[in-house]
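Milestone M4 deliverable, item 7.
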Amino acid sequence: MLPVNCYLVYDSTKEAAIIDPGCFYAEERDFLRDYIKSKGLTPKHLLCTHLHLDHVFGCKFIKDTYGLGIEANPADEYWLQQAPQQARTFGLTYPEIHEPIEQPLFDGDKVTFGDLELEAICVPGHSPGSLAFYSREKKVLFSGDVLFQGSIGRADLQGGNFEELKEAICNRLFTLPDDVTVYPGHGPSTTIGYEKRNNPFFI
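Output delivered:
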C-alpha cells in the first residue's frame, strides 16, 4: 500500500543488516524471513534511515523474530509514538506499540557486521533525524527518503524543512564520489554523479 524499499545488506560471512523494513502485510514479512533463511543469514542490525510510518511497519516483526531493536537517530523518535495515529490517516489499522530506539545513531557513527562497515550521515530536512548509510569501501549509499532518482524527499511533513534538505544533500551527499551508487527509500537506484548533473532540484 505504501511501497518502500527494504534492504538486506550482507557479505560472505552471512552477517546482515536490515534497513527500513517496510513490510506491512504478512506475505511481505514471510518473504523477508524466508529469504533470510534461504541464504543462511544472521541479522545483526535493524537500521532505520528515519522513522516515518512506512519505513517502520516491520520493526516489531524484526524484533520478535530476530531480537533486534531499532537503530536510528533519536531526533525522529516522536514518530514512533505517532505511528498508530498516522496509520489511521491512511485508513490503516496499526495497533502495534514500538519500543523506544534501542541504539541511538548520530552523524559519523559506524555500524559494523561481517566485514562491512556503514557510516551514518545525518541529512535532515525530510525529517529531523534522517540518516543515510554509506559504505565507503563498496561505494554504496542507502539514502532513505532524502535523495531519489531525479527528485528529493518531501519537506512538508512535521519536522521537515525544504532549504535544510537541499543544503544537507549538497554538503553531505554531493561531496561523495560521483560513482557512488544510491539506493533510495522508494524507486530505482541512481548515482551521486547522475543526480548532481540531472536532478532538477539542483540544476
